[in-house]
Write a structure and sequence with these properties.
By secondary structure, the chain is α/β, with parallel strands linked by helices. The chain folds into two domains: about 1-220 and about 395-410, Glycogen Phosphorylase B (Rossmann fold, 3-Layer(aba) Sandwich), CATH 3.40.50.2000; about 235-395, Rossmann fold. It contains 16 helices and 15 strands. The strands form three sheets. The chain has a seven-stranded parallel β-sheet, sandwiched between helices. A hairpin with a 2-residue loop joins strand 6 and strand 7. The radius of gyration is 21 Å and the shape is globular.
Length: about 400
């Protein structure tokens, strides 16, 4: 079997597909990933075939994360990326030829149209809920109600409008019928499209009305493998020995003035609380990073490694990062940049695994907001609940379930 994943996104979007690729290769299949050149080393180091998509990974971060405040911003970002690479459909067609299955995600639905043209089956991968359910939603803070279900009403139509703008000229040029408001991404070649949510069923309970083609599998990662070759700096070793177990704070590598200010406010809040912390602050100039007995600044570090050495975590709320923190049994404070991150912050809090999330898309949180949330984070009130969730997550095997589902789907 040949599987090709088409990925437009950040490292958090790439990592799970790399892990899935490793699992499929172990089973004797070929796995390929079409994505930005920035991720070539990550992919090829795992023995997976890399294929170049002329997309700037930094622009993906800017257009689809940093500038993402509304659904319209997301659509504008996607159209900007399309304009920057007029050859993206030709590159996609070349990449997926000969495949038995094409995998795509939220930011790469164009791959579905290439697969349709070539008569190849597809699988969708989402890191937050996209299939309608009354149980939970990105767009509604309630749970298990008709209001939640109705919050999904505009999603298919919005996606279809964007598709009509972005894809109909291309579809017409190669003889495919125009995409319509009534068209759907959930069916292809007369079959329901295989759909994956690589997150824990503890956070995203599968809706029994979805059908057997939709799988909430558990996370796609091998946390123990991620830190095997990491050598701990002597300065970090000394810091860890100095006093109380620290927390870990990180917001990724996105560049924006808003994130610079958030980092500064977080550090000021840490100083006010006296909580010891290891801080990954890529947005702050190196000259401003001064290690003390309370704060230690660190650059790249495998999260599974550092999570074993801290008492709690603060991060932006990406699906994989959040899963690694819960897997490690750590109370988690999410300061979210985008909808899906805020969703996981809400679910964490609902499971009593961390404080109410802060959401900077609504308002950049104050030093006092962060200070109060940090004190709550280390209060001990979440320790037992997150350990219970950790034990349940460790019993899930997302990669096995996903690979089994792919083999069954393609074999059928």
């Amino acid at each position: 079997m040949i599987v090709t994943a088409v990925v437009v996104g950040t490292r958090g979007d790439i990592n799970p597909l790399v892990e899935l690729g490793e699992e499929m290769i172990k089973r004797g299949h070929e796995f390929r990933i079409l994505t930005s050149d920035a991720f070539r080393p990550l992919i090829e180091d795992k023995g997976i075939r890399f294929i170049s998509l002329s997309t700037d990974a930094d622009h993906v971060m800017k257009y689809l994360v940093i500038d993402y405040k509304t659904s319209l911003d997301f659509a504008i970002g996607m159209l900007k990326l399309k304009k920057e690479n007029p050859q993206y459909m030709e590159q996609t067609l070349d990449a997926i030829k000969g495949s038995n299955l094409v995998i795509y995600g939220t930011c790469s639905p164009f791959a579905r149209h290439a697969a349709e043209y070539l008569g190849i089956d597809c699988a969708r991968v989402f890191f937050s809920p996209m299939d309608a359910t009354r149980l939970y939603s990105l767009y509604c803070d309630e749970y298990d109600s008709e209001k939640v279900l109705k919050s999904y009403a505009g999603l298919p139509q919005g996606l279809n409008i964007l598709t009509m703008i972005a894809m109909n000229k291309w579809r017409k040029s190669i003889g495919l019928p125009k995409w319509k408001l009534s068209s759907t991404y959930t069916e292809l070649n007369g079959r329901k499209v295989l759909t994956f949510y690589p997150t824990s069923r503890e956070l995203m309970v599968p809706d029994p009305t979805w059908g057997e083609h939709i799988h909430v599998t558990g996370y796609w990662y091998h946390p123990e493998d991620a830190s095997a070759d990491y050598e701990e700096p002597e300065e970090l070793t000394n810091f860890l020995k100095m006093g109380d177990k620290p927390i870990f704070v990180a917001f990724g590598k996105a560049e924006s003035q808003e994130l610079v200010e958030l980092q500064r406010r977080t550090i000021e809040a840490l100083k006010k609380t006296g909580i010891r912390a290891i801080v990954q602050a890529f947005q702050i100039p190196n000259n401003d990073k001064v290690n003390t007995d309370k704060i230690y600044y660190i650059d790249d570090v495998p999260y599974p490694y550092i999570f074993k050495r801290v008492r709690a975590v603060v991060h932006h709320g990406g699906n994989t990062t959040n899963g690694m923190g819960l897997y490690a049994g750590l109370p988690t404070l999410i300061i979210a940049l985008a909808f899906d991150q805020h969703f996981y912050g809400r679910m964490n809090h609902r499971l009593n695994c961390g404080p109410i999330p802060l959401y900077i898309r609504k308002c950049l949180c104050s030093v006092e907001d962060i200070r109060e949330a940090l004190i709550d984070l280390v209060s001990g009130r979440y320790d037992e609940s997150v350990k219970e969730i950790s034990a349940k997550i460790r019993k899930e095997n997302g990669l096995q379930e996903a690979a089994n589902a792919i083999e069954e789907y393609v074999d059928v």
